[in-house]
Amino acid sequence: MRVVISAGGTGGHIYPALAIINKIKEMEPDSEFLYIGTHNRMEKDIIPEKGIPFKSIEIYGFNKKNLLKNFKTIKCLFKAFSDTKKMIKEFNPDVVIGVGGYVTVPVIVSAKKLGYKTFLHEQNSLPGKSNKFLIKYCDLIGASFPSSLKLLPKEKTILTGNPCSEDALKKEPINKSDLGLSITKKLVLIVMGSLGAGRVSEYMKKELNGFESKDYEVLFITGKGSYNKVMEGKYPSNVKILPFYEGLPSIMKKTDLMVTRAGASTLSEVIALGVPSIIIPSPFVANNHQYINALDLVSKDAALMIEEKNLKEGALVEAIDNVIFDDKKLNKMKNNLASLKVDGSADIIYKGLKGLVDGKSK
After folding, report:
1. Can you tell me the mean pLDDT for 339-358?
2. CA 243, CA 259: separation in Å to the nearest integer?
3. pLDDT number for residue 94
4. For residue 101, with 0-12 CB atoms within 10 Å meaning exposed, 13-18 middle and 19 or more buried, which class applies?
5. For the whole model, what pTM was predicted?
6. Which residue range forms the structural domain that includes residue 26?
7. Distance between CA atoms of 331 and 142, rounded to whole angstroms?
8. Is the dihedral of CA 312, 313, 316, 322 positive or negative?
């Protein structure tokens, strides 16, 4: 299979794209890929390091605060359509895939106008602006959450889940002692990511002392940008702090309760691994989509949610205590997460792509 794939800007788009690539390689080892991304975002480093052919285009999102900057945005967008059209014609793919981010707009539109089959994957409950625009240019759409099915065209949408969930299942669990953690005590994993990290880090510096003498351990992964600031404080011996951990699902497999943002990839891993969670959606994302993602779990009693504006002193410790010491509540969350699980997400996507290529789509 010859595949052009495009996703950009954040790991929430890039890592699902990589999971799709890995599945296609697994099923068809002779497949060839061209990844089209932005010239200045994280995919420009991640993708070439994976040995995947990469081409970039200069493209920007529209700026609501400084309208003058949009003149450059529009100019770059027209050039991006011209450039992607040439790239796609030259590569001559069997299918073109968009996995999110504004970089996908010229790629998918150009592919459709050139007559190529197109597939779009939506990670969030609420489709983003780029994906909403691209709906009419797609032959098949993959939705991660059941709630998205109500917002996308029924005739060409399939429930796929998020392919990152399969990668999470393949990870080996950590040996807790390797991180200085107790083998017998329950573990609370706190991961807040980079969005709004400064505000959350300031809150956590005070809140972490509330875990003193608790009969469980806390592992707080700060993110590299916040680690030094957090480490200015002194914390109880049952609190461990790391700046970053590659392969977070390995820790999640040994986690009793997770405190997390509501990024689509993270929630797909929470669901796949059945990890009870307290979700603190980032208020700094477009269309408040993390809050909406979280509602998918909260409405099914598969997680709890605390909005960032409600993070008062002691609120998080109290919420954790109310869950971690209640085995019935933990088990109920696990059972309800199981009902949200989509098995074989990457396989479903591959079968959908194969159907498009063979002319047997939905």
Report:
1. 95
2. 16
3. 98
4. buried
5. 0.89
6. 2-161+343-357
7. 30
8. negative
